[in-house]
């Protein structure tokens, strides 16, 4: 199984780049996962990553794409809660890459 190495410790990831054991997640690991996804993390990215981690912790499931955007709009406002903004941060797949970097499971709505 593929892995990411951080400070001499290996973290298993799936073939799609998702962390196998979420309990091992750290910000350093998130940065490595972002590199694998081709995403350069900025404070704006961290805001979305923190949001999805909080969402998952609270509800114990991931939203679909439409609910993801709606939930961000509710918490962070119209400027950030829209697909144009989210795709500017995560060009290929906002929900998928936010979850991947956040150390969460692959959303069922993602192919």
What does this 3D model show about the protein?
The chain contains 5 helices and 2 strands, in the order ββααααα. It is mainly alpha-helical and 111 residues long. It has 2 domains: 3-37, Dissimilatory Siroheme-sulfite Reductase, Chain: A, domain 1 (2-Layer Sandwich), CATH 3.30.1420; 43-101, Arc Repressor Mutant, subunit A, CATH 1.10.10. A hairpin with a 2-residue loop joins strand 1 (3-6) and strand 2. It is globular and about 40 Å long. The chain starts with a strand and ends in a 10-residue tail after the last helix. The model has no long low-confidence stretch (mean pLDDT 94).
Index terms:
Arc Repressor Mutant, subunit A, 111 residues, Dissimilatory Siroheme-sulfite Reductase, Chain: A, domain 1, two-stranded antiparallel ribbon, mainly alpha
Helix content: 40-55%
Rg over alpha carbons: 13 Å
Instruction: Output the strand order for the largest sheet.
Output: 1-2
What number of domains? 2
Taking pLDDT < 50 over at least 5 consecutive residues as the criterion, the unreliable ranges are: none
Number of helices: 5
Order of helices and strands: EEHHHHH
What CATH architecture label of the largest domain applies? Orthogonal Bundle
CATH superfamily of the largest domain: DsrC protein, C-terminal domain
Principal-axis shape equals: globular
CATH topology name of the largest domain, in short, is Arc Repressor Mutant, subunit A
Rounded mean pLDDT is 94
Compute the separation of the termini in Å. 20 Å
Biggest sheet architecture: 2 strands, antiparallel
Indicate the proportion of strand residues: 5-15%
Secondary structure class reads mainly alpha
CATH class of the largest domain: Mainly Alpha
